[in-house]
Amino acid sequence: MRNSKRSWHKKNGVSKVEKEKSYFCAHQKIKNFMRIKYCFIVLLLFPFYTLFAQMDPQFSFFPWTQSYTNPGAMGERENHLNFTFVLRQGSLLIKDTTQTSQSGTDPSTPIPNPNLPGKKEKPKKNFILLDQQQVLLHIDSYIKQIKGAVGVTFLKDKVGTMDNVGFRFGYATRLKVRGGKLGIGLQLGFLNMKPNQAYLNYLQTGDPLDVILKQSETFLDFDVNFGIHYKAPTWYVGVSGTQLFGGLRISGDENLLRIPRQLYFSGGYIWNLNTAIPWSIEPHILLHTELKTWHLHLMALARYNGIVWFGLSYQHDNGISALVGATPFYNSSNDYLRGLDVGVSYSFDTKKTAYVKGGTWGDFELVVRYGFNFYKEKILTGYGSTRHLHKNQY
Question: Whose CB has fewer CB within 10 Å in the chain, the N or C terminal residue?
Fold first, then answer.
C-alpha cells in the first residue's frame, strides 16, 4: 500500500510533503472564510430597532477605546504603559418650547395668514443648538510580576439632558492561548450624573422632565463591568457587559435615571495585501445592545506601511465618519517615539433634522494613543566567575 502511494506521487510529480502543505493551506483559508461568514450571519439575526435609551457614550475610534467597553482588552502589550485620550465634540438640536409658555399658544397650531384670507399656515419651528462633549482618558499597563494588567479610566460625558463624570478601575489577567492572548477583565466604576443646566433652561414650566430634573440635583451610581477579549496576530474578538448591576444607587432618587445593563460584541481582522506596496485592510465591527435597542458600528481602514491610515465608519441611526491618522514613528529605533498614534475623524449626521436652519453639520473627534516600554532587562557587567553571576555580585 505504501509503495502504491509513493508511485502515485512520483507519477504525478507531487511529493507527499507538498500535498500535505497544500491541503493545510486550503484548510486554513476555508476556516478563515467560515469564521467571517458566521460572524456576519449572527449579526444579521438581530432585529432592527431605533436607539432611544440612554447608553454609554459611543466613539468613532472604537477599536482604540476597547479597554473602556471591555476590561479584558487591557494590557495588550506586555511591559508597556499605555495612554489613550479621546475628545469628541458635537452638538444636539432640540425644539425651542419656551415660546409656548410665553405666548400661551401651541407653536404647532395653524394660525391665520393675513396676506391670504381664508388660508392658514403653520409657523416656523425654532430650534436650539446645544453643545455635546465626551472626554475619555484611559491608562493601563501590563505588569509582569502580577501576570496581569491594571487600568484606570476617567470619563466626562455631556450629552442631552445630563452632564456625567465617571471613574473606573480594573484588572485583567492575560493567558497565552493558541498563538494569541486571552484577556479576562473586571472593572469597578462610579458614575456621577447631574442634569445639564443649559438644557433645563429650554424646558417648559410644568414639563414632567423639567420637574424631575430640577428636583434632583445629582445621582451617584456604583457598577461592575466584565469582559473577555482574545487577540491573535491578525484578528481579535471580544464580548463584554457593562452596568451589570443596573446601577447601584449610592445617592439620589433610586427610581430615576437608571442606566440599563449593556452588552458589547466586537471583532476585527488585519488583511495584509500581497503587493509590492505594503498595504493592509482592517475591517472592524462593534455591536452594542441593552436587549431592547441596539447600536451597530462598522469601520474599514486602509493602512500603508504601518504608518499612515485612513478609512470610513458607519453608525446605525447616527452618521458616517471619515477617519485619517498616522503612527509617524512606526519604523523609528527610538522606543519612546515609536508608540505614538494620532487620528482625527469627522462625522456627517444622517438624520434630516440635523440640516435644518441653524442645525449641526457633524461631530469632530480626536484620538491620541501613546505607549512605551518601561521595563528594561538587567545587564550584568564586570569580571568574575559565571558560577556567581546569579548572586548579582557584579
Answer: N
